[in-house]
Amino acid sequence: MERRKFIKNTFKSLPLLASSSSLFALACEDKHIPGALDKTVVIVGAGISGLAAAKSLQEVGFKVIVLEAQDKVGGRLRTNRSLGVAFDEGASWIHGTRKNPMTDLAKEAGMTTFETLDESQKSYDVGGVLRNTELYQNAEDEFYKILKNMMKSGKANESFETVFNKLYPEKSNDRLWKFLLSSYLTFDTGDLDKLSSLLYYEGEEYGGAEVIATNGYDNIPNYLAKGLDIRLNQKVSKIDYSNQKVSLYHSDGILSADFVLVTVPLGVLKASVIEFSPALPNSKQTAIQKVGMSSVNKFLLTWETAFWDDVQYISYTPEIRDKFNYFVNVKKYSPNHNALMTFAYADYARVTETMSDAQIIAEIMNHLRDIYGKNIPNPSQMLRTKWQSNENSFGAYSYTAIGTEMQHFDDLAAEVNNKLFFAGEHTEKDYFSTAHGAYISGRREADKIIQVFK
Q1: How far is residue 225's CA from residue 229's CA, in Å, rounded to a whole number?
Q2: Alpha-helix residue ranges (DSSP H) falling in 157-254
Q3: In which pathway does it act (predicted)?
Q4: CA distance 55 to 41
Q5: What does the longest C-alpha to C-alpha distance in the chain come to?
Q6: Per-residue pLDDT for 27 more than 80?
Q7: Is there a contact between 452 and 260 (Cβ–Cβ < 8 Å)?
Q8: CA nearest 273: which of 394, 385, 388, 354?
Q9: DSSP-assigned letter for residue 18
Q10: CA separation for the pair 2, 373 (Å, rounded)
């Protein structure tokens, strides 16, 4: 499943980001920067951006401390293995393996992958009617043509949904088009009634295959964390950068640092969980407010016996958009596990966080029974996420909402007084909303700190 399939297929090469191996090799060449051992960098957040930065900075001699609010590293790269299969609660795919720094990093970390093919799919309409393959493909082709051109009719104060419904009223209530808008757009971006009708097409992508992690995406953060001073269960409540040294107030007390790198998700910044003294510059506050934060939740269900089609993806087109309409066949890449993974997006994702496990299972099984018959059994077990209410994320990833300007991503990345720095997927204009964007941002900020110190 391509998360950014429709986005411009161009690649702005960054020489420093050729591969993870070359990145760390470059860092090693810069070891023993004079005076670095006397400087302390505190990194807030042990997600992939914070860990990437910490590894780079420690390798060139800085004293690096990572404060993490949760009880393990990884941030939104979390893997749950309680059912015997690796269920990635956050990122699952490497989106485009060619020149993507995550490709080499995954190999180094021991993360195994499987190529997922969009063509391996079946689509069902209400009533369990198998949709004609040609009809589905024609609609998908038209969908991407619309995405490439609709921005010409976009307006700064109008959402994607508003403009789309004006231009294509006959499609707005078509079940197949609801599915395409949901799983091929909302999933990749955010709520369509809040998505910018001008900037939904922004961002870059890597070429090559789409591969899914098979033994857990957390292999990458666990690998990066080796040898680092990471202090878990440390919530940062205040960062005072008014003096020469920066003071960080956290669960166990106060830390002093020469440089601070904040890598918490955009949702946490929006919630003002951390107090900044003095207040952040107006440009950064505006960017925090204007860039959107999406909501996506994932659900893994297991059975004793598989009853579904032997394809990678099974789609279902109900009347209600964003609701359990796409199923990933886990058995295709983990043959010993009879499991399906499905999703909820936008407002319906938020609704699921108020529902019990039994209610979730009932809604999912209504769809599956419409496809495969009323006699199929309930799942043996289920795992789920609640990213919107998770106080360490308050959402899934950033997107271009109404009012967002691309400059806002640069404003989110801007350092303050050469001592307060920011990383995370929401700070990477070309690769926002992706794990590789977060990784790149961490390397970028490490390089900034090194250059400022030098």
Answers
A1: 8
A2: 160-167, 175-181, 219-224
A3: Plant hormone metabolism; auxin biosynthesis
A4: 11
A5: 71
A6: no
A7: no
A8: 394
A9: S
A10: 29
Name the residue among 6, 312, 346 with its Cα closest to residue 143. 6
Number of residues that make up the chain: 454
User: Helices (DSSP H) in 110-168: which residue ranges?
Assistant: 133-149, 160-167
CA 20 to chain CA centroid, Å, is 19
Q: Do residue 198 and residue 243 come from a single domain?
A: no
Burial degree of 107 (CB within 10 A; 0-12, 13-18, 19+): middle
The per-residue pLDDT for 32 is: 74
Distance CA 249, CA 175 (A): 51
- 18: in domain: no
Q: Which domain holds residue 409?
A: 31-78+218-293+403-453
Task: Indicate if 314 and 351 belong to the same structural domain.
Answer: yes
Separation of alpha carbons 227 and 258, rounded Å: 21
Q: Is 142 helix (H, G, I), strand (E, B) or coil?
A: helix
Contact 224, 104 (CB under 8 A): no
The verdict on 196 and 343 lying in the same domain is yes
Q: Cα dihedral sign for 93, 97, 101, 105? A: positive
- d(CA 109, CA 223) in angstroms, rounded, equals 5
pLDDT tens figures, 79-137: 999 999 999 999 999 999 999 999 999 999 999 999 999 999 999 999 999 999 999 99
- To the question of pTM greater than 0.85 for the whole model, the response is yes
User: DSSP code of 70?
Assistant: S
Q: Chain centroid to CA 145: how far?
A: 25
For 217, the token pair is: 């995406």
Least Cα distance to 424 among 262, 220, 272 occurs for 262
Sign of CA dihedral 353, 82, 76, 434: negative
Note whether residue 11 is domain-resident. Answer: no
Cβ-contact 351, 273 below 8 angstroms: no
E strands in 258-335: 259-262, 275-277, 292-293, 296-302, 313-317, 323-329
